[in-house]
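B., you asked whether I could sanity-check this one before it goes into the benchmark set. Here's the sequence:
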Amino acid sequence: MSQTALIADIGGTNARFGIVDKTGLHDLKYLECRNFAGPVEAAEQYLKDISCEARPSVAVFAVAGPVNGDLINFTGIPWTFRVSALKKDMGLSVFDVMNDFKANALSVPDISPRLLKKISGGEPVDKAPKGVIGPGTGLGVAYLNWTGEAYAASPGEGGHVTMPATTEREFEIFHRMKAKYSHISAERVCSGKGLENLYSAICVLDHKFDLPGMEAPEISKKAMDGSCIVCKEALDLMLGFLGRVTGNLALTLGAQGGIYIAGGIPTKLGDYFFQSKFMEEYKTKGRMSSYVEEIPVYMIKHDAIGLLGLEKVAQRHMGGT
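And here's what the prediction gave me:
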């Protein structure tokens, strides 16, 4: 069996690479997707950067998009590839591709308690379904179901469910967004891109044409330091919307095994996240409010938890446990 494996967690902004061998996961490196034509070019640059002597014959990639066959299209970046062609081009004997949030979910059953912060709820019910959701560049969703012997991870496209507006202000913001999008999905308002969408829509709605265009990190910064009221409203709305869709996921799955918040955004917001309307919106479920209040909710304190899920799969391919 192969002694080394290449793993990659490729999102809408960064491609996170690592090498897995009998000692574990090492040589982690982040590359910006926009600097490469596709995953082959990014992977080859990574192997060159770490001066990899023994070229891996096993690779396990997680991608931000659906995985339903040989042709892979990324949702948030203009990358596309065929699994069969990449396997051949890189000289791999094993090439496993999965959705990025399946990789996140795979890390959950054995996750270290030190990587979790409990936000709300009671104790998890043994062998009950678990939900995983997280905003980064986009919004990812997956779940874990007990098979009788272990948890199996399944990805979904829950980031693209229709996002409901529940106030007149939200409806007006969504109406402005309709000029750009025919469908207001959860991802359009619960992600890095979603934060930018909300900021832009509020600027138009409130005639704040003097404000500059901003990307998500700057919007978040100005929201948290209180220097921009439009940024603050945008971030507050985003976190409320995230709570709303997370509560919907908890109800849909009956996720009494727990809801796990992943993704790069929540961990970067610190206390601002916990003081937001996330939990208020999460619990606002009418007759089912008490039901969701009992479901444990955890934040994963790791911005690339999918790498740990990929490591587990890579070890199996290499004949490990």
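One thing to flag: The chain has a mean pLDDT of 94. Otherwise nothing jumped out at me.
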